[in-house]
Amino acid sequence: MQAYDKYTIETIGLPSAVLMERAALSVVDTMAAGDFDLSRVLVVVGVGNNGGDGLAIARILHLKGITAEVLLLGDEKNLSPANQQQLSIARKYNVKIGRNVRDFRDYSVIVDALFGIGLSHDISGKLTEAVKKINASNQPVIAVDIPSGLDATTGKILGSAIRANTTVTFGYVKTGLTIGDASKRVGTVIVKDIGIYAPEI
Ligand SMILES: NC(=O)C1=CN([C@@H]2O[C@H](COP(=O)(O)OP(=O)(O)OC[C@H]3O[C@@H](n4cnc5c(N)ncnc54)[C@H](O)[C@@H]3O)[C@@H](O)[C@H]2O)[C@H](O)CC1
Ligand SMILES: [K+]
């Protein structure tokens, strides 16, 4: 799955930060074009590059004057380099970044940027709690690349998974969005071209 991303970055030479920015912009465009209530956006971010996408989304919304805040889940010492870079940029633009929220129902829309295609084993602990609370809030959810908790290859729910109204996936439809438990979690799937080189499609 990630081979296409790797090829684009390492062989074609498109910097990963460019892909991340285009990914973030494609989600912001979808939010602006859809019938979402953007009065109070919460972006839930993890420690990998999916979280990096989320931090970029929150920053772009914030700079447009939209109230957007970040819930950062996971250990800050595990942040991927791209995530760290986006966290630093968001902080410099004074995006509100917290480690817990009072109630997920306080937000008009939730962006799920906890895990993407790098989820490798069952979600557990605090992350499971957050997934269950977000699902229980019944607030509209937009999943970044794939609903967190869904395996990008098998479509299996790894412990627990976010139930999304809309999934914005980058470059190509991951098989995990079409098989297994996917239909219970993905909502409407929108594929956005962000410049990933994927010759077979
Ligand atoms: N396709 C592209 O060109 C682009 C992809 N982008 C985004 O990057 C993610 C994939 O990022 P990656 O860092 O590989 O993985 P994740 O962010 O999904 O998370 C991995 C992170 O989480 C840890 N982890 C894995 N499983 C668990 C678990 N069960 N519990 C706790 N932690 C877990 C793992 O160790 C990593 O640290 C892709 O989906 C896109 O959103 C680019 O940003 C845009 C272009
Ligand atoms: K996600």
From TrEMBL:
* Record keywords, A-Z: Isomerase, Metal-binding, NAD, NADP, Nucleotide-binding, Potassium
Q: Could you tell me what reaction this enzyme catalyses?
A: (6R)-NADPHX = (6S)-NADPHX; (6R)-NADHX = (6S)-NADHX
Residues annotated to bind (6S)-NADPHX: N49, N50, G51, G52, D53, G116, I117, G118, L119, S120, H121, D122, D145
Q: What is its EC number?
A: 5.1.99.6
Q: Give one Pfam family, short name only.
A: YjeF_N
Q: Which residues bind K(+)?
A: N50, D112, S148
As to how many cofactors bind and how, the note says: Binds 1 potassium ion per subunit.
Q: Which cofactor does the UniProt annotation name?
A: K(+)
YjeF N-terminal domain: residues covered: 1-201
Q: Which GO terms describe its molecular function?
A: metal ion binding; NAD(P)HX epimerase activity; nucleotide binding
User: Could you tell me which Gene3D superfamilies the record lists for this protein?
Assistant: YjeF N-terminal domain
Q: What family does the Swiss-Prot or TrEMBL record give for this protein?
A: Belongs to the NnrE/AIBP family.
Function of the protein: Catalyzes the epimerization of the S- and R-forms of NAD(P)HX, a damaged form of NAD(P)H that is a result of enzymatic or heat-dependent hydration. This is a prerequisite for the S-specific NAD(P)H-hydrate dehydratase to allow the repair of both epimers of NAD(P)HX.
- In Swiss-Prot or TrEMBL terms, this protein is called NAD(P)H-hydrate epimerase
